[in-house]
Amino acid sequence: PNGVSLSFNGGKDCVVLLHLFAAVYYKHFQDSVDIPNIQAVYITHPNPFLEVEEFVKECVDRYGLDLITIKGPMKSALAKYLEQRPNVQAILVGTRRIDPHGENLLEFVPTDPGWPPFMRIHPIIDWHYSQVWEFLRILNIQYCVLYDLGYTSLGSIDNTYPNPDLRNPSQPSGYDPAWKLADESKERCGREKSTSSSTSN
């Protein structure tokens, strides 16, 4: 268990991944007296949403996370994380095909040369947007409140806003909830495109 960690940022995909991993993890330890907390790393954006920060804290308590929070950029943050957790050999990531740089990823991919060395594992790489929300809603899994306000993909306050495809003046927030988005290709329409390559790995 100390060789595996989880990348967690409070987003919907990470919540699905965390829930699945926690189910397997705690079943594995069901006959144990002492259950180690799930190792996780949270690499933060500049100017994160307060709602995201609060939700991450809730998940630490709900799922029993040994969470280390480190400011980005990604490459240096991962190096710092492995300095603190040198036994970690693999990190589970909630990336899906529709995400930037996700189209050609395999389920198991070592990090690129020059990056901190570990195995990247993508258990939900082939999940669709609708499947993510079906999973969360049918199992009544708690998620960040921003998704109920029209946000469909979460970054920082500087580059994220409600998805214009969910605009609905009849709603108190002015937007339908994220799960009502019908076209998954529009999932990131509430995100400004980044010019940075710091997260490309």
UniProtKB/TrEMBL annotation:
It is an enzyme of class 2 (transferase). Residues 162-173 have a biased composition (Polar residues). Pfam families: PAPS_reduct. This is FAD synthase. One of its GO terms (molecular function) is FMN adenylyltransferase activity. InterPro entries: PAPS_reduct_dom, Rossmann-like_a/b/a_fold. GO terms for biological process: FAD biosynthetic process. Its EC number is 2.7.7.2. It comes from the Eukaryota. Transmembrane segments: none annotated. Keywords: ATP-binding, FAD, Flavoprotein, FMN, Nucleotide-binding, Nucleotidyltransferase, Transferase. Residues 162-201 are annotated as: Disordered. Residues 73-161 form the Phosphoadenosine phosphosulphate reductase domain. It catalyses: FMN + ATP + H(+) = FAD + diphosphate.
